[in-house]
Write a structure and sequence with these properties.
Layout: H1 13-26, H2 33-45, H3 50-62, H4 66-79, H5 85-101
Helix pairs in contact: 1-2, 2-3, 3-4, 3-5, 4-5
Length: 109
């Protein structure tokens, strides 16, 4: 895939993720489209960046696209080795997000 939003592939993953984190913090926890694209790009470059992949999905969820979020989360899980501790973390965050959406809890991932 080609780079998005004018970000060239030679930027470090930390820079992509850090910029996305800053954008979300600046918006009080709301995922702006640029942050979603940066998280997605970081995960696309390195599927081991499970947090970035999860957050790209969470951004889609927050934007009213739960099917896309679920697809992203399933892709993150599928890309991780079975013994990777990040698998359990992503699954827990997925459950927390679903429960919050169902009104079962007022939890934030």
């Amino acid at each position: 895939h080609s780079p998005q939003v004018g970000v060239t592939p030679n930027y470090s993953l930390g820079s992509l993720i850090g910029l996305a984190d800053t954008l979300v913090l600046q918006e009080g926890g709301t995922f702006v489209p640029l942050a979603e694209r940066l998280y997605a790009q970081a995960w696309q470059i390195d599927a081991g960046q499970a947090r970035a992949g999860f957050l790209a999905g969470l951004a889609a969820w927050q934007d009213g696209r739960p099917d896309e979020a679920e697809q992203r989360w399933e892709a993150v899980i599928a890309a991780l080795p079975p013994d990777d501790p990040q698998r359990a973390q992503v699954l827990d965050l997925m459950d927390t997000t679903r429960q919050a959406a169902d009104g079962g809890q007022d939890a934030q991932p």
